Amino acid sequence: MRTPIIAGNWKMFTVVEEAKALVLALKDLVKDVTNVEVVVCPPFISLLAVKDVLAGSRIGLGAQNVYWEKNGAFTGEISAPMLKSVGCTYVIIGHSERRTYFGETDETVNKRVFAALSEGLKPIVCVGETLEERESGQTFDVIKRQIVGGLANLSVEQMASVVIAYEPVWAIGTGKTATPAQAQEVHAFIRKLLNDIFGQTTAEATRIQYGGSVKPDNATELMSQPDIDGALVGGASLKADSFEKIIKF
Ligand code: PGA
């Protein structure tokens, strides 16, 4: 059985004091949750402070990006050893906002995945089609290209640490969620791809999150689909009570 994983992607929201307050409230609200893995992904500058607040809780810590070199003259970048040193266990890679605004490609996603894995960080690899791609019937081609490229050359052992997030770009931050059937269709397709690349055991074990306007009132229906194993939540993870409701779907 796959344990659902619900991660909050805070994006570029919260200054340090707000981040601490948010996670302090969340920690208390979800202290009894054991059947779902919960992760928060604050901005880099708050990771250390959030880590301290999280002490003694089951909530995991993740970053929103990672550079593929360990160190060097790369002004403004953050490496996997750095993330590990502040207590991260997860890192989001290839989010559509990074693909759209910061030139992320499947090739750079792949480099970041290897960098994360080499430090023992678990990548949350995001894939998803734009509205234009969906409407022109390219959804499966796009997802296949992103999965094959982003996960290229990974071993079965490495794949055991990877979480995938299917986030249709047209559903992110728009209030337009994919219907449970639309999401399930793509999740099943991703699992089939994983089966072709890594074999059945890996395909069945890999957790595939849905992301894109997940809210307390649609979480249950989405998460009850057979191939949806949790959620990557943006907006609704910035309020402790709405994130709590999603976690307790
Ligand atoms: P949203 O963002 O929940 O605000 O749509 C999801 C995401 O970008 O991960």
UniProtKB/TrEMBL annotation:
Binding-site list for substrate: 9-11, 173, 213, 234-235
Gene3D superfamilies reported in the protein's UniProt record: Aldolase class I
Catalytic activity, EC: 5.3.1.1
Origin superkingdom: Bacteria
Broad class of where this protein is predominantly found: cytoplasm
GO biological process terms on file: gluconeogenesis; glyceraldehyde-3-phosphate biosynthetic process; glycerol catabolic process; glycolytic process
Record's catalysed reaction(s): D-glyceraldehyde 3-phosphate = dihydroxyacetone phosphate
Known function: Involved in the gluconeogenesis. Catalyzes stereospecifically the conversion of dihydroxyacetone phosphate (DHAP) to D-glyceraldehyde-3-phosphate (G3P).
Keyword line: Cytoplasm, Gluconeogenesis, Glycolysis, Isomerase
CDD domains per record: TIM
Subunit and partners: Homodimer.
Pathway membership: Carbohydrate degradation; glycolysis; D-glyceraldehyde 3-phosphate from glycerone phosphate: step 1/1; Carbohydrate biosynthesis; gluconeogenesis
HAMAP family noted in UniProt: TIM_B (MF_00147_B)
Alphabetized GO MF terms: triose-phosphate isomerase activity
Protein family (similarity comment): Belongs to the triosephosphate isomerase family.
Gene Ontology CC terms, in alphabetical order: cytosol
Main EC class the enzyme belongs to: isomerase
Name listed for the protein in its UniProt record: Triosephosphate isomerase
Localization per Swiss-Prot or TrEMBL: Cytoplasm
Active site: 95, 167
